[in-house]
Amino acid sequence: MVDASDMAVGAVLQQHTNGGWRPIAFFSKRLLPHQKRYSAFGRELLAAYSAVRHFCSAVEGQRLIIYTDHKPLVHAFRKASRALSDKEIRHLEFITCFTSEVRHIKGTENLVADAMSLNVHSLQSTKQFSAVKIAISQATDPELDSVKKDTSLQLQRRSIDGCSSPLWVDVSAPLPRIYVPADLRRSVFYAAHGLSHPGVRATKRLILSRYVWPGIKRDVARWTRSCIACQRSKIQRHTRSPLVEFPTPKERFEHVHLDIVGPLPLSEGKRYLLTAVDRFSRWPEAWSLGEISARTVARTFLENWIARFGVPARVTTDQGRQFNSELWCMFSKFLGCQHISTSSYHPQANGLVERLHRHLKAALTAHMLQTGVRWTEVPPLSYSACGAPSKRTWVTPPRNWFTDLRCASWASFSSGLQPSQTQTFQVTPTSSKPPCKGKAGGATFKPSLAVRQQSSE
Questions:
Q1: Which of 61, 329, 389, 409 gets the highest tally of CB atoms within 10 A of its CB?
Q2: Does residue 403 belong to any structural domain of this protein?
Q3: Based on the structure, what is the number of domains in the chain?
Q4: pLDDT tens, position by position, 95-104
């Protein structure tokens, strides 16, 4: 049986005789500084390798079964399902010279090897947790009188080995449990949980078998979940924080979403697009870039957006290297705007601008296939998204942004109209009924029957 911790590796060599396992020898070794940085799989594999190497003279030519509480180590001997380093491959090859039979065992059944892998100086015995301290603290505990009246507990004063003063213990359970005052509860928890950092249920069973206090289950669960060592070592057990929604801005220019599209086919020295969308009005813009360094992105945003519309209160981006750079951090602090980074590998969190990318890419591809021109020669496709009303406000972005601006319909580009020709849309207030065909919110959109011709004069 083998096991590994952050500090050492340990193993116990056992032999099955007379219907049971009998220990033969024990092994323990502290990890070197560079070995402490191994992954959990690397440390468990090192424990098995070190144990086989230590006991090789005793197990050579014998049937050897390795028991471990680390399932990925079991799968590594059955199939090559992960990328292994050269050192891990050498360790596996050495172990297979003696055995390839590796089985999984529950952590609660691997106590001996687990104890051999712990740092002796860090072990704290709950039995030696100073019964004298508890007796002194019980004498001055203000909650003790109210706890005595609790019908669910039966507190009595009894003598405990190692303590001259009697302690208040709960006799309602099969085994007496010591009542712990408020100032010592954290210390009792750390003494029990710090042995091997078990989960919530295991820690509850361990502490409830010896101690009691009001709200003990709630306290143990909260302290176990907030244990820093557990959070660092048990990555797979992390709970995901719930997703939150951005608050709706109250005015224009307040909240802007930024992102980068590319790399695109090289056109006039450009490969990327920097896109921006105002969250209030849904007004989109896009600017072509030759390279996407933090300096270029910041300068483009400053010259093309901030110089025209002012400094936004909040800017939301993904966790691209340009937006996580020191320059962008200083840029945000200088402008006095809040930089919000979305979750890693979760583009849905920046869905407003990601949806614009979908429209841009589809429009660019279709236009290039139809006309054969390069994408930098395509008209500002981001403006084509302005003609549709927002589902949130049922008002077009130009009306939100410029109030009375008339935006040429995208049909005018494909129908061959000259730039001097515009299509007029009349917006008339209506009732606040739900939108239906031909309506959007409280406005009815009616294309004029005639296309107004504007003379070049």
A1: 389
A2: no
A3: 4
A4: 888 888 888 8
| Segment 249-289, tens digit of pLDDT | 788 888 888 888 878 888 888 888 888 888 887 888 888 88
Instruction: Using pLDDT thresholds of 50, 70 and 90, give the confidence band for residue 439.
Output: very low
Residue found under tokens 């077009």: 396
Residues 162 and 112 in one domain: no
- Decide if pLDDT at 215 tops 80: yes
pLDDT, tens digit (0-9, with 9 covering 90-100), for 185-196:
888 888 888 877
Looking at the fold, whether 136 and 113 belong to one and the same domain comes out as: no
Q: Report whether 175 contacts 209 (CB < 8 A).
A: yes
Of 104, 11, 6, 105, nearest to 49 (Cα)? 11
State the Cα–Cα distance between residues 220 and 402, nearest whole angstrom: 58
Range of the domain at 428: 411-453
Its sign, for the CA torsion 201, 218, 186, 144, is: negative
196 with 156, same domain: the answer is: yes
Residue appearing with tokens 């090289």 = 266
Nearest Cα neighbor of 124 from 198, 193, 213 is 193
Q: Let me know how long the chain is.
A: 457
438 domain residue, yes or no: yes
- One domain for residues 382 and 274: yes
